[in-house]
Amino acid sequence: MKVFEIKDTFGIDKLVLAERPEPSPGHGQVMVKVRAVSLNYRDLLVVKGLYNPKLRLPLIPFSDGAGDVVAVGEGVTRVKVGDRVAGIFMQAWIAGELTEAKAKSALGGDTDGMLAEYVALHQDGVVHIPEHLSYEEAATLPCAAVTAWHALIENGLKPGESILVLGTGGVSLFALQFARLAGARVIITSRSEAKLVRARELGATDCVNYESIPDWSSMVRELTGGEGVDVVVEVGGAGTLPQSLRAVRVGGRISLIGVLTGASGEINPRPIIMKKIRMQGIFVGSREMFEAMNRVIRLHRLHAVVDRVFSFKDVAEALRYMESSAHFGKICIRIA
Hints:
Layout: E1 2-6, E2 15-19, E3 29-38, H1 41-48, E4 64-72, E5 84-87, H2 100-103, E6 118-122, E7 126-128, H3 135-139, H4 141-152, E8 162-166, H5 170-181, E9 185-190, H6 193-202, E10 206-209, H7 216-223, E11 229-234, H8 241-247, E12 248-256, H9 270-274, E13 278-281, H10 287-300, E14 306-311, H11 315-324, E15 330-334
């Protein structure tokens, strides 16, 4: 079978299209014919060697993919041949709290990922995908959608609350969609007026262009009557966190998810203390969260926002497109 590998060294141009034997499912495992994968910012960092330069190579990258079960090993009861499934981000995080051991089971990092024609996964590490979704849409769910669900719904977002989402990437747009389903008000930021128009069409209540309004936190406070939002879905990291601390209300919540603007920087803890802000790191979520989210997606026939679909041979081009930040929503690769 064909796979893409980070073989000897890191870099987008160093990805190698290679041949590996088709996996054979062992006891409790299922063999999945991968139909589509989606890109996350983490995948870009992994490929470039910026996520963890000590990863063992060769490595098949990319955590998120969806396809068909084509074979099952002995003892498999959760799925059957012909089922449409997606892998879960951390193969060992089924339910309960995250542990170090569960965190080390993430696909496309500590273990081979989904950028292959076939993968063998444990039956506990897959979920059935909603019937109305294409394989490309389903491939967007394991990381971005579950992360947004965890940040908002699992943390008790209430109707009438206000949230701030930064940018128009995958996590942010899923957060927008879930928040609207929950009856919350959504303020979104972008430097692109065209993207803000599209975000408003998805249900954003208010849009802030952070290029024309660099002090966007003041605008967010103005839009909320001087109080600030109840929740910030913080995907920017060190470069945006100081303004997120100003944009959230006293007693509000910040879900710290990404490092799009960088992982290092000086943060003043005083606003966290003085405003009694609750900050929580969100590292994707469990299979239990994934399945709960899928029930809502199925019920409301929610569709993922897919910006572009690339062919399997154009993986490097897809990664460069992500690097350009031109996308709105998710970038996918069709494998078969």
